[in-house]
Each structure stands twice: as C-alpha cells, then as structure tokens.
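Hi F.,

I've been meaning to write this up properly since the lab meeting, where we talked about keeping a consistent format for the predictions we share between groups. The idea is simple: the sequence comes first, exactly as it goes in, then the structure tokens exactly as they come out, then a line or two of notes. No screenshots and no reformatting. I'm using this chain as the first example so we have something concrete to point to.
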Amino acid sequence: MSKPTLLILAAGMASRYGSLKQVDGFGPHGETIIDYSIYDAIRAGFGKVVFIIREEFLEKMKTVFDEKLKGKIEVDYAFQDFDLTKFGVNHVIERTKPWGTAHAVMSAKDKVHEPFCVINADDFYGSDSFQKMAEFLTTEVSDQQMSLMGFQVGNTMSDYGYVSRGVCEVTPSGHMESVTERTNIYYKGEGDDRKIVYEENGVETDLDPKTRVSMNFWGFTPKIFEVAQAMFPAFVEENKENLKAEFFIPSVPDYMVKHKLADFKVIPTPSKWFGVTYKEDKPIVQESISKLVADGVYPEKLF
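Output, unedited:
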C-alpha cells in the first residue's frame, strides 16, 4: 500500500488572528505550527504533503517550506479559489470569503489519489494523533471505513474567545453517529462556575468537557471528493445569497454516515490541543512548544 498523504488546510485569511499565521514562527528557531505537523507526519510514515492555499500565497509558502522539506517528503500545492465551474456550478457568485473547509478539500482532488488525512494549518495536534492516523490509513481504511481523531472538547478551548468544533455523537462501538459543526463554542462564567457552551440562534447549550469533537483531523480515501462534489451544487444553490455560508468538512461525513455510504471510526486521543485562533494565543503556543522541546519530544531544530 502506498504511503498516506497529509493534506493541510492553509487557505484561510486568519481574520481573527490578524496576520498570515500559516507562516508565523512559534518554535525556538522560528518553526511554524505546520513544521511540527509535518515533522510528526514524516515520523509516522506519511509520504507526501499537499498544501491547500490561495494562489496568492504560493510564493510565500514555497519560500518557507520547499527548501527545508526537500528530500524529506514530497511537497505539492492545490489552490482554493472562487471558480465553481470545476465543481458543477455554472454561475458566478461574488464573494470575498472562500466556500469553507469541504470546498478546500475538494480543491485537492487532482493532487491526491491515495488514503490521506486532513488537518488545519494552525492547530498543533501532537505526535500521538499522527501515529494513530497513519496506522489507520495503512491498515484499516477503505471507501466504507474512514476516520477522525476524536479530541475532548475540554482539551481544545481558547481562553480568548469562541472556537469552531465538529461536535460528535459516538456509538458504544466507537463509531461516529453524527457530527455537527458548532461555530460558536466558548467558556462561560469564572472559577468553579466556568463551563463550556455553544450558542446557536441566540440559544446557549452546555457541552460536557469530555464530548468528542473533530479538530478537522480526518482520515479519508479519495471517495470523499466524489461525495463532496455531489453535495456541493445543492449547497451553493441553497446559500447563494448568504455570502458567509461555508461548506464545512463535517457535513460530508455526516451525510455519508446517515446515508450508509461509510462508517467513520472515532480514534480517541487524550492529547491537549493548542493552536492560534487569536493573537493572544501565540505566547501560550510558544511556551507549550518550548516545554515539549525541553522534554525531548521534539529536537530544538526540526529541519
């Protein structure tokens, strides 16, 4: 079996962060969060990395990544843009915001022909997640059996504002029953009274800190491109007047499960996520990485 591919979602504009966080430095020698993900992926046995970016980011990304990854892992790029005709939509819709993470994944359909996993560029997942996903993608994956890394929502929060997570319902056998993208999850209250809630249509709902959530760390086969592309025209038609509507990844696995097209194994991980949604998150990420380096989990200089 061919080595799996790592697909990195790096086309976002980082509006809440305030700069291009995909290439911002966090490690002792200016390493990006992506660097640590790729390092973990190489150790786990991945053979290729594909960056999904906006075309205007290409030269910057190549400058940052191509030379240091040369000879270590194959590198390629796919562009997320506003041309909908290649996905079966024959009219132009003027937008400034891309069509979301599932649309981003679809943009890589001509670059990926083997089992692959999807991650966010700005999330630090830890080596445990990559090892478990690589094992799944090389021993268990099929068009009928895909996966996601299941984090506990309490391990994925930011102290500085809301976050978006795919909230999962999980069967006793450890498979996904449903996943719903919640785009407004945050802490409410202080001290012992602090709890996690999500807000939708002005209504707050409590979330158990141990609830399994998707951090956009999915294990797929190329079958996902076919299903997403079949769903996309109807999504665009339904949301053509909503310039902020996004076609999120969780909607595709959720559809596949409900229509019995595939099962999704929820691979549990105890890892504590950290990442950069807000500028205020940066010192925390830098401190966390420094500790991992001091503990010998990562070398001081990755590449």
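Notes:
The domain at 5-294 is CATH 3.90.550.10 (Spore Coat Polysaccharide Biosynthesis Protein SpsA; Chain A).
DSSP finds seven helices and 13 strands in the chain.

If this format works for you, I'll send the rest the same way.

G.
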